[in-house]
Automatic annotation (TrEMBL):
<dbReference type="InterPro" id="IPR016030">
    <property type="entry name" value="CblAdoTrfase-like"/>
</dbReference>
<keyword id="KW-0169">Cobalamin biosynthesis</keyword>
<protein>
    <recommendedName>
        <fullName>Corrinoid adenosyltransferase</fullName>
        <ecNumber>2.5.1.17</ecNumber>
    </recommendedName>
</protein>
<keyword id="KW-0808">Transferase</keyword>
<dbReference type="Pfam" id="PF01923">
    <property type="entry name" value="Cob_adeno_trans"/>
</dbReference>
<keyword id="KW-0067">ATP-binding</keyword>
<feature type="domain" description="Cobalamin adenosyltransferase-like">
    <location>
        <begin position="4"/>
        <end position="167"/>
    </location>
</feature>
<comment type="similarity">
    <text>Belongs to the Cob(I)alamin adenosyltransferase family.</text>
</comment>
<comment type="pathway">
    <text>Cofactor biosynthesis; adenosylcobalamin biosynthesis; adenosylcobalamin from cob(II)yrinate a,c-diamide: step 2/7.</text>
</comment>
<dbReference type="InterPro" id="IPR036451">
    <property type="entry name" value="CblAdoTrfase-like_sf"/>
</dbReference>
<dbReference type="GO" id="GO:0008817">
    <property type="term" value="F:corrinoid adenosyltransferase activity"/>
</dbReference>
<dbReference type="GO" id="GO:0005524">
    <property type="term" value="F:ATP binding"/>
</dbReference>
<dbReference type="InterPro" id="IPR029499">
    <property type="entry name" value="PduO-typ"/>
</dbReference>
<comment type="subunit">
    <text>Homotrimer.</text>
</comment>
<dbReference type="GO" id="GO:0009236">
    <property type="term" value="P:cobalamin biosynthetic process"/>
</dbReference>
<keyword id="KW-0547">Nucleotide-binding</keyword>
Length: 192
């Protein structure tokens, strides 16, 4: 039988790849928050209607694997670390973001997070991704890390926003515009 507890963390220290750190270390906070995002991504996937959203459900499962890769990279303090994350996941996210942005109704103003339950879960993921990004940004100022992780988490928050909007659209649930929002989003042809 494998024990789930080791007792090695009882004094506030934890193992990272290539060493140990205090449990409140910024690196531990970074990969811990990435793990939290992974769990909320699982919840978002679990509430999706798989008949209506097979594409998003499959993407969320892939994202969970990529978040594990991010966590692994964030947990490494080895000088000769071989990173798991590269630029390919970001490219995949960008393609999905473009498809979902095109599918959803045109956006001009800020919207409230929510609409359907599934979209609300994706908005929660978006906000946790933003928090994860802030922590990783702080880590990058102090220590060496894989920069692709920061880029990925940044793009992932945009993905969750686009996915939440398309979920509402497919369910015929209107996004609620923030009532005091100015026009902040313009179509590309309006920018000239």
């Amino acid at each position: 039988m494998v024990r789930l507890y080791t007792r090695s963390g009882d004094k506030g220290r934890t193992r990272v790849i290539g060493g140990t750190r205090d449990k409140d270390d910024i690196r531990v906070e970074a990969y811990g928050t990435c793990d939290e995002l992974n769990a909320f991504t699982a919840k978002a996937e679990a509430v999706l209607d798989k008949q209506l959203f097979p594409d998003i459900a499959a993407e969320l499962t892939r994202i969970q694997h990529e978040l594990f890769d991010c966590g692994s990279d964030l947990a490494s303090v080895k000088e000769d670390a071989v990173w798991k994350m590269d630029d390919q996941p970001v490219s995949r996210l960008e393609k999905s973001i473009d498809v979902y942005t095109e599918e959803a109704p045109e956006l001009q103003r800020f919207i409230l997070p929510g609409g359907s339950s599934a979209a609300a879960e994706l908005h929660i993921c978006r906000t946790i991704a933003r928090r994860t990004e802030r922590i990783i940004t702080a880590l990058a100022k102090e220590e060496t890390m894989n920069g692709e992780v920061l880029t990925y988490i940044n793009r992932l928050s945009d993905y969750f926003f686009a996915a939440a909007r398309v979920v509402n659209s497919r369910m015929n649930v209107a996004d609620v515009e923030y009532e005091r929002s100015a026009v902040v989003f313009r179509a590309h042809h309006d920018k000239t």
